[in-house]
Fold this protein.
Amino acid sequence: MHIVLAANPETEQPWVTDAVADLVRQTGASVAVVAVDELEIEHLAPLPRSVYIERAEKAAEAATARLAAAGIEATRTVLPGRPAEQIIRFAGEQRADLIVTGSSVRPVMAQRLLGSVPLTLIEKAGRPVLVVTRPVTG
């Protein structure tokens, strides 16, 4: 089994990485971490592309480091562009059996206007997608 973990550059989601670590321990799967810089049109961006790339690199590094701390080896890739499209393409290239992502961090109104990466992955990935929600703390 091969898992693609989609790391989110907008926010840390360690519980998603922990869920992947649990899956790997249960199945012996291999893991490829991917983060996408989320910059579609560079000349319209409020910040230089390097800022977006740095965020994606930090997200991918944090996920691979957390997996490594759990004794799990993973590859790491950072890609430019639209997240859902790039994650789907990457998962195809990797011949992934499963894509794991965190639930959307955008407010509901922004999701309606801009879309939700997890929902788009579920609709268009053509392979199983596991969306991990933030754990409830009580």
User: Anything to note?
Assistant: The CA atoms of residues 21 and 67 lie 6 Å apart.
